[in-house]
Amino acid sequence: MTEANTEPLIVKNEGPIGVLQLHRPKVLNALNPELMSKLAAAAEAFDEDPEIRCILILGSERAFAAGADIADMAPRSVADMKQRDQFRDWDRLRRIRTPMVAGVSGFALGGGCELAMLCDLAVAADNAKFGQPEVSIGVIPGAGGTQRLARSVGRAMAMDMCLTGRMLDANEALRIGLVSRVLPSEGFEQAMMTVGGEIAKQAPLAVQLAKEAVEAAYETPLEGGIMAERNLFFSCFGTDDQKEGMQAFLEKRKPEWRNR
Length: 260
Hints:
The chain has 12 helices and 11 strands. It has helices at 33-48, 70-73, 78-83, 88-94, 111-118, 145-153, 155-164, 170-176, 188-200, 204-219, 222-236, 240-251; strands spanning 2-6, 9-14, 17-22, 54-58, 63-65, 100-104, 107-109, 121-125, 129-131, 168-169, 181-183. Strand 2 and strand 3 form a beta hairpin. Helix 1 packs parallel to helix 4, helix 5 (111-118) packs across helix 6 and helix 10 packs antiparallel against helix 11 (222-236). The protein is globular, with a radius of gyration of 19 Å.
């Protein structure tokens, strides 16, 4: 494993898995512009590295991210917020092609919940808490929270969370489809490496195309989504990995992916 400890973000990799660990422990990993800029830049660097096949975003045992940095935002005006383009780095993360997986331990509130939803997959530790409590401080979610929440868990639950600010535990988050798995908090980071490894061992281009196809389900009507999936499926047959994967299956051996 290689590691670079540059606050407020720890960047490391273990083979094909790139790890981005939020590291502002005094403020429960509150997401300020500096952290988001570093997070986006590090994710983009991993995205350009052909050896990296999965990106994990982690926090600490106590908090994935407890929200945005309120002290940073409190005194600002409408003009201030628009001029500094508060969410430009979130848009950079949205364009990452490599699968991103959020490993959520502890609090994922406000921006923390939004960051987990921005990832392609969110996995919770059994001590995780999710919520969009922005109304309790006089604002609403601004990093896609209302939109991704409604698409992920439906209108009723999105309204419940955004209007009351109530928190969900890991099991309720799993039940409504906000996360895909709940794992024990003990040994959680290593367990997340295993989850990342499940993705990293697959055909890299096929994984990226599968991600693109699933995203199309949220952006197009069913007929358009089916056509997008079909065209992406056909495009797989122009890759070396399709030939290698199917030949390895027929020969009953492990494939050797070429990422092309």
